[in-house]
Design a protein that fits this description.
InterPro entries: PPM-type-like_dom_sf (IPR036457), PPM-type_phosphatase-like_dom (IPR001932). The chain has 272 residues and is an alpha+beta fold. The protein has 7 helices and 12 strands.
């Protein structure tokens, strides 16, 4: 099997807020690679501090041991939680720093991917040009939907849609969901990590439609961002997305967004 090539595009904007409390970043090598998006919150401007600390911790810890597994994904999120809890001890009274986090790990040599999250920042996988998988939010509204108290339409319209049931830095129980065993991936797979300020205004049908029309990963993100800017209003949240396009090593100079010939079933997400 030839080593996979990966192309990254990223976009993070303040929207209608005074500061951008979203953070994102990535670290790549010839073997293991890591991408992460975090959406921070907290009084006294603590949200941007929280999200930056989460991203920094995840990337530094992965770079020190770039192994792709569900256990590593859980460990990265748990370590970020521990670091943020320590940082909160030195913040002004009234600061309740916490953050969502979603991460993607890819082993370029083995052609495998793992993802994990806490909160309502999401990971998406598009395979053969179609949406194959998306993470399930840790939120009050998602819990209501799962319990049969409403349709999936509530996820973008309910007045309490921003209330989380798990977040990095919260004093309560930390719930982490991961993709399980490493997922085989190959040329043509496209991943996206994004904050809720992004997916709230760009639904999955538009994500897929724009992907089919896009000439590059950067163009895909810019076209989706235009929907946010058009529909979100003047007081919209920060919005952030990272796109990762997987190519074969032979096509390393070309960003391929079209379908690929082989398909594999996406995994069932596990929660710890």
């Amino acid at each position: 099997m030839s080593k996979l090539d990966v192309h990254t595009a990223h976009l993070s904007r303040t929207g209608g807020r005074k500061r951008n409390e979203d953070s994102c970043g990535y670290w790549t090598s010839d073997a293991g690679c890591c991408w992460v998006v975090s959406d921070g919150a907290g009084g006294h401007g603590g949200g941007d501090v929280a999200s930056r600390l989460v991203v920094k911790t995840v990337l530094e810890r992965f770079a020190a041991n770039p192994v792709v597994s569900s256990e590593v994904a859980v460990s990265l999120l748990e370590t970020a939680h521990a670091e943020l809890m320590k940082a909160k001890e030195h913040q002004p009274a009234g600061t309740d720093m916490h953050a969502t986090c979603v991460l993607l790990l890819i082993d370029r040599e083995q052609g495998q991917a793992v993802w994990g999250h806490a909160g309502d920042s999401r990971a998406y996988l598009f395979r053969n040009g179609q949406l194959a998988y998306q993470t399930r939010d840790h939120s009050l509204v998602q819990s209501m939907i799962d319990a049969g108290y409403g349709s999936t339409d509530l996820i973008r319209t309910h007045p309490q849609r921003s209330l989380l049931t798990s977040a990095i830095g919260n004093a309560g129980e930390l719930v982490i969901s991961v993709s399980g065993d490493p997922v085989p991936t190959d040329a043509g797979d496209v991943f996206m990590l994004c904050s809720d300020g992004w997916w709230e205004y760009v639904d999955e049908a538009n994500m897929q439609r724009i992907l089919a029309e896009a000439s590059s990963a950067d163009a895909w993100l810019e076209s989706m961002a235009a929907i946010v800017e058009r529909d979100a209003g003047t007081d919209n949240d920060n919005y952030t997305a990272v796109g990762v396009v997987v190519n074969s090593a032979e096509s390393a100079t070309t960003v391929i967004l079209g379908p690929r010939s082989e398909q594999a079933e996406p995994p069932e997400e596990s929660t710890s």
